[in-house]
Amino acid sequence: MARRNRNKLLVPEAREGLDQLKAKVAGTNNPEQAKFEIAKEIGVPLKEGYNGKLTSEEAGKVGGRLGGNMVKELVRMAQENLNKK
Question: Which terms does the UniProt entry file under GO BP (predicted)?
Answer without folding.
Answer: DNA topological change
